[in-house]
Amino acid sequence: MKGITSAILSQNLTSDDFAALPIPESYRAITLHADEVELFSGVPVQDRDPRKSVHLDDVAVPEVGPGEALVAVMASSVNYNTVWSSLFEPMPSFRFLARYGKLSPLGRRHDQPYHVIGSDLAGVVLRTGPGVFAWRPGDEVVAHCLSVELESPDGHGDTMLDPDQRIWGYETNYGGLAELALVKANQLMPKPAHLTWEEAGTPGLVASTAYRQLVSRNGAAMKQGDNVLIWGASGGVGAFATQFALAGGANPVCVVSSPTKAAICRAMGAEAVIDRAAEGFEFWKDEHTQNPAEWKRFGRRIRDLTGGEDVDIVFEHPGRDTFGASVYVARKGGTIVTCASTSGFRHEYDNRYLWMSLKRIVGSHFANYREAWEANRLIVKGKIHPTLSETYALEDTAQAVYDVYRNRHLGKVGVLALAPREGLGVRDFAMRERHLDAINRFRVRPTADRCRTPQAGGFAF
Ligand code: NAP
C-alpha cells in the first residue's frame, strides 16, 4: 500500500500514472465477523461494548464491476450506523449482505463472512469499472453513502425510493473504514480543496442526511425565518442542521447536554441554546409514562428564546425519549421531521396535538445524489464547514466507535486510513486560511462534562 500512499502524497502524478499503479491483493480494513453475531446475546444493548466486535483484518481486494470505482481511502469517519452494526442491533448487518448477495453476481461479492464497515471516505480514485466516464484514476474525491441499482422505475424520481437502495458500508460490504473502498461511481463527489483528508472524510453521511431532512423539499423544506428546534445540535447530524439553518436564514433553537456543547453551538452562530442536562428536562416519569408538564416547560423555554414563537420545524432523531415533546412544541401547522430513533423506535405522542394543530410528521432517510451533491457543494464553497473534533488511527477505530456510542464525542470523529498523519491533503491554502476558525471550532479539549448523558439503545441506520 506504500506505493499508493506515496503516489498520492507526491501530488505530481498523472491520471495514467495512477491507473498504472499496482493494486495489492489484500488491504487492511475494519471488519465485523459473521461468526460473532451472537457475541452479545442476552446482553442489553446499552451494556454492549463495540470494542469486542470491531476488528482490523486483511481482506481481499474485490473485483471492480461496471459503474464502480476502487478508491484509496486517506481518511474516513465513525457514524452512528457504525455503532449499530458493531452492536449487531437491531439485526446483524450480515443479513443485509446476504440479501444483496442474492440480487446479482455483482451483489454476491458483498456476501462474505466479514463485513468491511464505514460510510464515509476522502481519498483518490485508483480504478474505474466499465461505463464510468465522469471520474478517472487520480481524482481526489469524497463519497456519499447511497448505493442504488436503479433497475426499477420507482427510484427514478428520487433515488432514495429505489427498491434496491442500500447504505454503502452498512448494507453493503467494502465500506470506508479501510485502506481501499469499493463504491458506485455515482457516489463520488469532489473533495473540498481547502480541507485536509480527515476533515473532508467526515461530513458526507451526516451533512447529506441533514440537508435532505431540513432543507430539501423531500424533507422539511425550511425557509428563511423558520424557527427550527434541533436535538443533539452539536452532534453528527445536528451540527450540520444547525449550520444549514443559520446559512438559510432560519433561527435554530439548539438542544445539547453540556456547557462545552452549548459553547460550540454559540461558536457556530446560534443564539438560542438549551442545555437539557443543566435544565433537567425529564420527559418521562418512568419507563412507561410521559410527563406532559415537562413538554409544557420545554415549550415555554423555547418561547423565552424565540420572543414568544413556537418552532416551525423540529429536527428529530433521539426518538422515544423526545418525540412526545417534539410533537407538542411544534407550532400549529409545523413539521416534525425524523431520521432516527436513537433512544428507542417505539414512539409515543399525544395525537390530539398533531391533528388538532394540523402538524405533519415527515420521515427522512439519507439523501439522493443531488441532495448529497448540494450539501458537499456548500462545503466546497466554504459556506458550511466540517465538524471534526478528534481523529483516530485506523488501529484505534474500535475505541472511536465506543466513544461515539458513549456520547463522549463532539461533532464528528475522524479515522486516518492511508493518510500517515493529520493535516495533509489541502490544495487551496488561501481559502483554508479564510475559513480556519470555522473549520477548527469543534477541536476543543475533551472535558469531563462531555459524557454526562450516554445514549440509550434504539435504532436508526
Ligand atoms: P451523534 O453524533 O451521537 O449525535 C446525536 C446527539 O443526539 C447526541 O450527541 C445527543 O446530543 C443527542 N441525543 C442522543 N440521545 C438523546 C436523547 N435520549 N435525548 C435527547 N438528545 C439525545 O449521532 P448522529 O450521527 O447525529 O446520529 C443521530 C441519530 O441519527 C443516530 O441514531 C443515527 O443512526 C441517525 N442517523 C440517521 C440517518 C438516516 O439517514 N436515517 C443518517 C445519520 C444519522 P446531546 O447529548 O448534546 O443532547
Give an account of the 3D structure.
With 461 residues, the protein is an alpha/beta fold. The chain has two domains: 2-203 and 386-450, Alpha-Beta Complex (Quinone Oxidoreductase, Chain A, domain 1); 218-363, Rossmann fold (3-Layer(aba) Sandwich). 29% of the residues lie in helices and 22% in strands. It has 15 helices and 20 strands. It has helices at 2-10, 15-20, 80-86, 94-101, 105-108, 197-200, 204-215, 236-247, 259-268, 292-306, 323-329, 351-355, 369-380, 397-405, 429-440, and strands at residues 26-33, 55-60, 68-78, 114-116, 121-128, 140-143, 146-148, 165-167, 180-184, 188-190, 227-230, 251-256, 272-275, 284-286, 289-290, 311-316, 330-338, 360-363, 388-393, 412-416. Strand 19, helix 14 and strand 20 form a beta-alpha-beta unit. Helix 3 packs across helix 14 (397-405), helix 7 packs across helix 8 and helix 10 (292-306) crosses helix 11 (323-329). The longest helix has 15 residues, at 292-306. The radius of gyration is 21 Å and the shape is globular. The two termini are 31 Å apart. Mean pLDDT is 95; it is low at 447-461. Residues 79-81, 205-206, 209, 231-232, 234-238, 255-257, 261, 276, 317-318, 321-322, 339-340, 342-343, 365-366, 404, 407, 453, 455-456, 460-461 line the site of NADP nicotinamide-adenine-dinucleotide phosphate.
